[in-house]
Amino acid sequence: MLNRQKSSRPIRKRYKKVVIFLYLFLFLFPFMILAQEVLTERNKAICEAMQKGAEISDSGDLSLKVENNAQLLEPIELPGQDYIQQFTFRDYILDLCIMLGYMTGDTTYDFDNHTSELKFPLGNGVIGGNLSLGYGNFSVNSEAWVPFTNHVREKMTDKDWALGILISSTDSNTDADALIWDANLRYDFFNKSLFSDEENLALQESDFLKIGVLLGYKYERFDFDMSDLYYEVDLLGGNQGQTLYQGDTVLTYHIKYNLPYIGLAADVLRESYGVRVNLKYSFYPTAEDEDNHLLRGLTFYGDYDDGSAVIGSMQGFWKINQGWELRAGLDGTLISIDGRTWEESHDPSWDRDQDTDSLQGILWLGLSYKF
Phi and psi (nearest 5°) for 309? Predict the structure, then answer.
């Protein structure tokens, strides 16, 4: 069994992360209180209308029937009625979405301040699913992605430097596997139809706007198998321009990212389509990896806990008919964490600083149904 005992490391102070979290909370809290006041505006308008003789239909929609001198007028349709009813007047909502996409990017580690750098590419077809359960202004959301293709077109690169001079650079064929899971709790502190003649930026008077805060967790696991070894540069070994170990696995690499986060989300909804965006900041990202250099008989481990991560997404959706929507989106993740690495036998000569960086993007199409 492999021994993953950690090397001795200085204790890092993390009080700054707690302070950042508190500042973000204090920054958002007044907006949440202000938004609650704004939300009462529409209720007041309805109450005033009822005092003047208006009635709200019992069918659950937002049509108003106004009775004037015992004469019943035509129902008044409020802008964006379908979406407004769907997102504000139901007690709950259940949303299921199936997605197909393409994941690109890479994850890279830098050993001992640019003594060695290994870059592991991503380029996979992926399938995903999203489940959302909402009640009132609260919703719980969960999303997962896995690849349905493993071979990556781009080569994995391994570069070594000595005294600032590139002495070795190799390329290898790459197969990649992954599991990405994201879950969060959302609270919408602003939930309002723009029933006015004012237009702000891209917003129109018929739009329905939701703004919420997010508290969540994202988990990512990437597994890479490398085969063949093409020497693009080899100043010391004399193998430059040659491909060795054809068909043999020369290296495997595994890394896991844990990304707790807070964030903001916004939805702009119109009668038949809408846009949804969110931005998340991971206040305490961590990672751990395992690097098996099979040709050298060495296994390295790494722990990372000093850095940051930003997660964002944008999607558009179009209503097909009652309940069904077509969606398209782009998700992105940027991670940068510093840490420490050591060799399995705990040879102190391998105990060094190591950084991990990752940039990922998923472009996807999806089909959803709201119950």
Answer: -150, 145
pLDDT digits (tens, 9 = 90+) for 233-284: 999 888 999 999 999 999 999 999 999 999 999 998 887 889 999 999 998 9
Which whole number is the average pLDDT over 123-151? 95
Q: What is the spatial distance between Cα 237 and Cα 241, in angstroms, rounded to a whole number?
A: 11
Query: For 79-370, CATH number?
Result: 2.40.128.90
CA atoms within 13 A on the CB side of 278: 24
Residue 72 pLDDT more than 70?
no
Nearest CA to 327 out of 319, 342, 317, 341 is that of 317
CA distance 239 to 225: 22
pLDDT value at position 205? Answer: 53
Does the predicted model carry a pTM greater than 0.70?
yes
Say how many Å lie between the first and final Cα of the chain, rounded: 48
Residue 195 banded pLDDT, cuts 50, 70, 90: low
77-135 residue pLDDT tens: 444 444 444 444 445 789 999 999 999 999 999 999 889 999 999 999 999 999 999 98
**Nearest-angstrom CA–CA distance, 233 and 168:** 5
Q: Is 220 exposed, middle or buried (0-12, 13-18, 19+ CB in 10 A)?
A: buried
